[in-house]
Amino acid sequence: MENPVLLPNQSAFYFSVTAIDFDKCYKVRKQRIKHGFSDRDLAFLLGFEPRYVKDIEDPTHSKRYKPKDTNYLLHIFDCELPEIMESSFPRRSYDLCLIVTATPRKPRTFDIYIKQPNGKWKAYLNFTELAENECLSPRSKADAIDVQEYLLSLLAEGYLDSPKTGLELYRKCIAHFDGHIKPVFIASSIREINKQGDMPIGIDKNRMGRRVYRRAKK
Question: What's the whole-number mean pLDDT along residues 160-170?
């Protein structure tokens, strides 16, 4: 790629990133897609706010995965470390060219290029952000209403008398429904249950700063 000729709805950015953060971000993205998780799905499983993963994957954003996230990501994906992070890199940092295509009322598209030792730009990744309510394949074995009814049964049985992480709730759900479930369905079910107010689910944080869920104290 030579110097890009931009369309009216495109912007170009040039900046450097550390190799380890950059590599980890997009290896995790690859695993996320492989497991059928949207960025909001993975944010729920990590126990953070809904935009956490979206902001990390946004190359214009400075947010990065924290060291404490590494083992938790391995736990979520049930994978080995090299699948989300290399142990060594030929360079400590990368010089990037990022072209952002923005269309009104549509998700942005990113084209990422890495500058090579010979000074030329090499295409690395092209992707479009997910829309807020967009889900990936495979389809969920249960819809949001099914998940909500199951969470209410867990409340009634006392399962949520002690704090549970989003990952624990997810694994409980996939065991019950015997297949893939969208973690965002659990998050939306918790919101709906709390709107009803009969048996609210409290949201707190554990010592790692991740959200946990339990029966709210009256």
Answer: 97
Of the candidates 198, 179, 180, 201, the one whose C-alpha atom is nearest the C-alpha of residue 189 is 201
Strands 121-128 and 109-115: antiparallel
Q: What is the mean pLDDT of residues 80-103?
A: 93
Strand order through the sheet with 93-101: 10-18, 93-101, 109-115, 121-128
- Exposure string of 181-205, with b = 16+ CB inside 10 Å and e = fewer, is bbbbbbbbbbeebeeeeeebbeeee
DSSP state of 217: P
The DSSP call for residue 6 is: -
Tokens 């998050």 sit at which residue?
187
Name the amino acid, one letter, at 200: P
pLDDT given at position 132: 86
Q: How far apart are CA 209 and CA 204, in angstroms?
A: 9
Q: Is the pTM of this model over 0.90?
A: yes
Give me the chain's average pLDDT, please: 95
- Report d(CA 201, CA 189) in Å as an integer: 10
In order of their start, the domains of the chain are 10-128 (1.10.260.40), 144-215 (1.10.10.10)
- Whether a cis peptide bond, with omega within 30° of 0, leads into 90 is no
Instruction: Give me the helix-helix angle, 166-177 and 183-196, nearest 10°.
Output: 100
* Residues recorded for the chain: 218
Question: What is the pLDDT confidence band of residue 77, given thresholds at 50, 70 and 90?
Answer: very high
